[in-house]
Design goal:
The complex is a heterodimer of chains A (402) and B (295). Chain A is α/β, with parallel strands linked by helices and 402 residues long. Chain A has 15 helices and 15 strands. The longest helix of chain A has 21 residues, at 2-22. Chain B has helices spanning 9-40, 47-65, 69-90, 100-122, 148-170, 172-182, 184-189, 194-216, 226-241, 246-266, 274-285, and strands at 3-4, 7-8, 138-140, 145-147. Classes of the chains: A alpha/beta (402), B mainly alpha (295).
C-alpha cells in the first residue's frame, strides 16, 4: 500500500515535470491584446475590423496554442500616445499580457514599443507608418509588420518618377508622420532623377483643402504628392477633382488604403497609383479569407486587417513550436521562420524587427474595369522585398550587426 | 504681374474668395448657435452633430429613397428641426433656470450619442455625395476657376442668413421673440405662448445647422466626424461676434473665413489656430465680443 502510494506520488510529480517541460505558459493562458484607434479617423482601416481579424486567427488555431487557451483583449487609444502606453503597461502588469498588437498611429506605437521593451513582452506593430520603429527606436521585442514610410516612398515615389512625373509638389499633414513621409519620398524622387519644387503644410483634420490645392496648382508641378492620410487624403482628392486640379496635375496618394478608395468612389480616384502590401483580390487564398471577413464586417479587409491575422497566426505558431510564451524565445523563433500565408510569401523578420515582404504598386481601376463592389485595384508592379524596405546595411538600428 | 506682399494679386483674390466660401459655413452655423443662445440661454454643443446629421440625411435620401439634392435641402432641415423639438421638449426645457454648464453638458452628451450611432453604422471614412447636376462644372473668373457649386454655397448661405436676421430684427414675430427672452412672464401675460415660441426657436436654430450640413455634403465627405472637426471653430466665431448677437455672428463668420483663407497663404501651419488667436485678442480688448452688449 505504502509502496503504491509513493509510486503514485512519484508518477504524479514526474507527470507534472513532464507537462511543465512541454509547455511553459505563464498564467496557463496565452493573452493577446490589441490597442488601436477604434473611434477616430483611422478606425475603419484597423479598429473593430482588426479585432475581428485577430479573432479569426485565434479561431483558426482552434483557440489553443501549445495546449493552452488563447484569450484576446482590446482597447481604444483615441490616437493618444499616453493612453496607449498606460493601457499597455496596465495589461502587462495586471493581466499577464503575452503579445501586444499595436494598431494605427505612429506616435502611439512608438510609446507602446518602449513599454513592451521595458517589460520584455512581444510587440508587433501593424498599423504604424513610421520607419523609426525598426531604425532609431528599434528594440529586441518589436516586430514591424505591414508597411512603413520607406516602403511607401520606394513604391509610389519611384514608380511615378519612372513613368515621367519629374516635378513634385507636396501637400503634407503638419505632424511627425507627414514630415517623415515627405522626407522619405523626397529622397526617393531625387535619387530617381526627379525634382521637388515646393510643399505646403496643412493642419491635421483640416476642414477645407481648396486653398492649399490652389497654391499647389500655382507651382506648376506635374505631380501632387499627398503626404497625409485618412480623412485628410479623402478631402484633398475630393477638392482636387472639384477644382479641376486633376486636369493639370497627377495626384500621388502616398498612403492610401482600400477604405479610402471605397469611400471616394472610382470616379474620383481612377488611375491613381498607390503602394499596398496586400489586396483582398490578389490570390484565391486571399479571396477566401476576405469573403469570410466580409461576412462578419460587411466590408472588405484592408492590408492592416489582413496583417493582424497573419501576424497573430505567425506568433501563435511560434508559441506552438517553442512550447513557451517567453518573449525572447518566441521572437527568436518568429525571426527564424519565414512568413508564408495568404498575406505574405517568404516574408522575413530581420534582426531590426522589420518584416520584409514583396509590396505592390497598385493602380486604381476605372469604373468600367471594375466588375464588382470592392474590385478596385490592378497590380502595376511588384516591388521585391529587398527594394521596398530599408536595407539592413543602411539600418540605423543598433541591433543590426554590421 | 501685380503683386501684394509677394503674392500675385490674382492668387490673392482667389484665396479671398475661398475664404468667403468657408466663412459662409461658419456664418450659418454660428447664426444658429447665436439664435439659440440669445433666446434660450443654452450653449448648444449638439450643433455640430446636427450639422453632420443634415449631411447624412441628404446622403440617405439619395441612396435609400432616390430623393435628389434639392428635395433634401428642404427636407433634411425639417426632419432635424423635428428632432430639435423632441430634444427641447423632453430634455432642454428643464434646464433653462440652471447654470449654462448644465445645458452645455447635456448637449455635449447628445453629441456623443448621435456621433456614436452614426460611427457604428457607417464607420469614419465617410460616404461620397456628388455635386448636383445643375451646379456641375466651374466658371473662369479670370483670376481663378471657381466651381459653380461653391458660388452657390455663398449665395445660398448669405440669403438664408439675411432672411433669419430680418425675421428676428424686422418683423413683429421677431419682436415678440425678443421680448419673450427679455421678460417671459410679461409677454405671456399678453397672451403669447412663450414656451411654444422657444421650442420653435430651437427647432429653427438646429434646422439651420442641418441646412449647412446639406450644403457641405458635396464638398466634404459625409462622415460621422465632420461636425466635431468644425464645431470648436464655430464656437470661437460666436464668442468673437458676441454671444447671442445675430448680425455679429454673420459678419464675424464671413470675416473669419477670409482671415483664415489669408493665413493659409502666408503661414499655412497656423491656419487652424488663427481663429483662436483672434478670439484671445478680442476677449482682451472687448470682453463682450465685437458686436455684443455688456450686461
Amino acid at each position: 500500500m505504502k509502496k503504491t502510494l509513493i509510486a503514485a506520488a512519484i508518477a504524479t510529480c514526474g507527470l507534472a515535470v513532464a507537462m511543465n517541460a512541454q509547455a511553459q505558459i505563464s498564467g496557463d493562458v496565452i493573452k493577446i491584446g490589441i490597442i488601436t484607434d477604434m473611434s477616430g479617423l483611422y478606425a475603419d482601416i484597423d479598429g473593430q475590423g482588426g479585432v475581428e481579424a485577430i479573432k479569426m486567427a485565434i479561431a483558426d488555431m482552434k483557440g489553443m496554442a501549445a495546449g493552452k487557451k488563447i484569450e484576446l483583449i482590446y482597447a481604444d487609444h483615441q490616437n493618444k500616445a499616453d493612453v496607449a502606453a498606460s493601457k499597455a503597461r496596465e495589461w502587462m502588469d495586471t493581466q499577464g499580457l503575452d503579445l501586444l498588437i499595436g494598431g494605427t498611429n505612429s506616435g502611439a506605437n512608438l510609446a507602446m514599443a518602449k513599454v513592451a521593451a521595458e517589460k520584455k513582452r512581444a510587440f508587433i506593430s501593424i498599423g504604424a507608418a513610421s520607419a523609426r520603429l525598426t531604425n532609431e527606436d528599434c528594440t529586441p521585442y518589436t516586430v514591424h509588420y505591414a508597411y512603413d514610410t520607406v516602403a511607401l516612398a520606394n513604391g509610389t515615389g519611384n514608380a511615378v518618377v519612372k513613368s515621367g512625373g519629374k516635378n513634385w509638389y507636396f501637400l503634407t499633414a503638419d505632424y511627425a508622420f507627414g514630415a517623415s513621409l515627405q522626407a522619405d519620398t523626397t529622397a526617393v524622387v531625387q535619387k530617381a532623377g526627379g525634382k521637388v519644387v515646393g510643399s505646403v503644410k496643412h493642419p491635421l483634420s483640416a476642414s477645407d483643402f481648396s486653398s492649399f490645392l490652389l497654391q499647389a496648382q500655382g507651382s506648376g508641378a506635374q505631380i501632387l504628392g499627398l503626404a497625409n492620410a485618412g480623412g485628410d487624403t479623402i478631402n484633398s482628392i475630393k477638392a482636387a477633382n472639384e477644382f479641376g486640379i486633376t486636369k493639370t496635375m497627377k495626384l500621388a496618394g502616398l498612403l492610401m488604403f482600400i477604405n479610402d478608395v471605397h469611400s471616394l468612389g472610382l470616379k474620383a480616384t481612377e488611375g491613381m497609383y498607390l503602394t499596398d502590401g496586400w489586396y483582398w483580390n490578389q490570390s484565391p487564398e486571399s479571396r477566401a479569407w476576405s469573403r469570410a471577413f466580409f461576412a462578419k464586417m460587411k466590408r472588405m479587409p484592408s492590408m492592416l486587417q489582413a496583417a493582424d491575422y497573419s501576424a497573430v497566426t505567425h506568433y501563435l505558431k511560434a508559441v506552438d513550436a517553442t512550447k513557451t510564451d517567453d518573449a525572447d524565445k518566441v521572437i527568436a523563433k518568429m525571426k527564424a521562420t519565414k512568413v508564408n500565408d495568404f498575406f505574405a510569401k517568404n516574408g522575413e523578420i530581420g534582426p531590426d524587427g522589420r518584416m520584409r515582404y514583396d509590396m505592390y504598386l497598385m493602380q486604381v481601376k476605372s469604373p468600367k474595369e471594375s466588375s464588382e463592389p470592392w474590385d478596385y485595384y490592378k497590380v502595376a508592379q511588384t516591388i521585391p522585398a529587398n527594394e521596398a524596405y530599408t536595407k539592413l546595411a543602411d539600418s540605423k538600428c543598433p541591433l543590426v550587426k554590421k | 504681374m501685380t503683386e501684394l506682399f509677394g503674392i500675385p494679386l490674382p492668387a490673392l483674390l482667389g484665396q479671398l474668395l475661398l475664404g468667403l466660401v468657408n466663412g459662409s459655413f461658419y456664418a450659418m452655423l454660428s447664426l444658429g448657435l447665436a439664435v439659440i443662445f440669445g433666446m434660450l440661454n443654452i450653449i448648444n454643443f449638439a450643433h455640430g452633430a446636427l450639422y453632420m446629421m443634415g449631411a447624412f440625411l441628404a446622403w440617405m435620401g439619395l441612396e435609400l429613397l432616390g430623393l435628389n439634392y434639392w428635395v433634401m435641402l428642404g427636407l433634411a432641415p425639417l426632419l432635424v428641426g423635428v428632432l430639435g423639438i423632441v430634444i427641447e421638449r423632453t430634455m432642454l426645457q428643464w434646464l433653462y433656470k440652471l447654470d449654462h454648464l448644465y445645458g452645455l453638458l447635456l448637449t455635449f452628451g447628445i453629441t456623443l450619442v448621435i456621433e456614436g450611432v452614426f460611427r457604428s453604422f457607417y464607420g469614419v471614412s465617410g460616404q461620397p455625395y456628388s455635386v448636383p447636376d445643375a451646379l456641375q462644372g466651374a466658371t473662369n473668373l479670370g483670376f481663378m476657376i471657381l466651381p459653380n457649386y461653391r458660388a452657390w454655397v455663398v449665395v445660398a448661405s448669405i440669403t438664408v442668413c439675411l432672411a433669419v436676421w430680418a425675421l428676428i430684427e424686422k418683423t413683429s414675430l421677431g419682436a415678440k421673440l425678443r421680448a419673450g427672452t427679455e421678460n417671459p412672464k410679461l409677454v405671456q401675460a399678453f397672451g403669447i405662448n412663450v414656451p411654444l415660441m422657444v421650442t420653435l426657436t430651437y427647432a429653427g436654430g438646429v434646422a439651420l445647422a442641418a441646412f449647412a450640413g446639406v450644403l457641405a455634403a458635396p464638398i466634404l465627405q459625409v462622415s460621422a466626424l465632420m461636425g466635431s472637426n468644425l464645431i470648436i471653430v464655430v464656437f470661437a466665431v460666436v464668442v468673437i461676434g458676441g454671444m447671442g448677437s445675430i448680425l455679429g455672428s454673420i459678419v464675424t463668420g464671413l470675416g473669419l473665413g477670409v482671415v483664415e483663407g489669408l493665413t493659409k497663404v502666408f503661414y499655412p501651419e497656423a491656419s487652424n489656430t488663427v481663429v483662436f488667436v483672434v478670439m484671445a485678442i478680442v476677449l482682451l480688448v472687448r470682453p463682450a465680443g465685437l458686436f455684443g452688449k455688456e450686461k
